[in-house]
Each structure stands twice: as C-alpha cells, then as structure tokens.
Design a protein that fits this description.
This is Reverse transcriptase. The chain is mainly alpha-helical. The chain contains nine helices and two strands; from the N terminus they run ααααααβαβαα. The protein folds into two domains: 183 residues, no CATH class; 29 residues. A two-stranded antiparallel ribbon has the order 1-2.
C-alpha cells in the first residue's frame, strides 16, 4: 500500500475508517437518515441488529463437557508448548488488537516467555470445555458496504476484532478440525478451505462452461 503513493494510501485509509474523501463521516449521514443525527443511538441500533442475527441459534448447554475434568486429556488433544510457540511466532506483527489491547508484536517477540502460560490456559480450557470470558469479547467495527450507506440492515458489515491470544488458540484447534474432515469435503468446495480462493472458483466455472460448450 505504501508503494502506491501517499494519496492512494490516504484514500484507502479513509475508506477503511468509513470517511468520504471530503472528510465527512458517512456514518454521520447514516445517523441523519435513521436516528435523527444521534450517532450514539446509531451505534446502539447497530449493536442490537448485529446481536439479533444469532437470536435463532440455541444457547450452548454449559452442562455438556467434551472431556471429564477429572480425567486427562487424550494425547492427540494436548497442546504442547512447542505448538503454541510456533503459533505465536506466526502471528503478523501488524495484526489489529482486540479489546485486551495486547499488541501482536508483544505476543510474537516474547513467544518463548508467553508460550508456557498460554499453553496451560489452552489445555485447561479444552479440559473444562470453557473459553475465558475475556476471549469472547470483541471490538466490532461497522464497515460500510456502499458509500454512502443508507441502511443498517443492508449496507453495514460488522468486523469483529477479538483478542489475538484467542485467535492463536482457534488456529490450533482449526488444524485438528481440518485433519479430521480432510477427505470428507466435496472436492469442488472452495469457500473456507485453506489454500483456495475465488480464483479457483472462477477457473472451475470457466472450465465447466468450456466443456459444456464443446459437448
């Protein structure tokens, strides 16, 4: 982004922050349309809408435990200090922080010191089936899909910034999930699959259209 010039860099930054090129917040325009210009009320309205999206989902049964707290974790589900250390070292130093305000560079640069205590927390969380409440919190940033946005329901996309330590824990578990479901996923499933992108979808579509045209 820096190589594209200061003008383009500033333009992209304003887009990310939801600012127009004239410096006026597009969120103020949305507030004028929906909440009589009250930005505080707009924020609460957005928050209520984002929360309502998951209202239909059943609440987690806290009495259900994956493992018995009095038993040892199965060996294949015990996270080693080495695994946590490698995961911390792979964290991008400029990754945005979550509500805990712990910078990514701290976790990365001091991975050798932080890996042992974090590993203990990870394994205890798996054993008890409970994620620390602080790791469930997120800074939610409303990102406009269009400029200017005119509807909260249609034109705003929430971006959640969660604690990086929780992201590290999630990445370790996701590797287990990937290994478990490997071979069970449809060969032409590209979304949410590591190493694939929209390019793979487009190539597959073009290939399918070409074969149909020839037949």
């Amino acid at each position: 982004m820096h190589e594209s010039g200061s003008h383009d860099w500033l333009k992209h930054m304003k887009t990310i922050m939801g600012l127009k090129t004239n410096g006026k917040s597009c969120m103020q325009g949305l507030a004028n349309k929906t909440t009589d210009g009250d930005c505080g009320l707009l924020a609460n309205t957005m928050n209520d809408f984002f929360m309502s999206v998951s209202d239909h989902l059943p609440r987690l049964n806290k009495s259900h435990k994956v493992f018995d707290v009095n038993e040892e974790l199965p060996d294949q589900y015990v996270i080693s200090v080495c695994t946590t250390f490698k995961a911390l070292e792979s964290v991008k130093a400029n990754k945005a922080t979550g509500p805990d305000n712990i910078p990514a560079w701290v976790l990365r640069n001091y991975a050798n010191v932080l890996a042992p205590p974090l590993t203990a927390i990870f394994n205890n969380s798996l054993r008890e089936g409970v994620l620390p409440m602080e790791w469930k919190m997120a800074n939610v940033i409303p990102l406009p899909k269009t400029s200017p946005p005119v509807s909260i329901e249609k034109d705003i996309r929430p971006i959640s910034l969660t604690p990086i330590a929780a992201n590290v824990f999630e990445s370790i578990i996701m590797k287990w999930v990937d290994e478990t479901i490997e071979g069970e996923i449809y060969a032409k499933q590209f979304g949410g699959i590591s190493g694939t992108s929209t390019t793979d979808v487009l190539v597959e579509l073009v290939h399918m259209w070409y074969r149909r045209q020839r037949n």
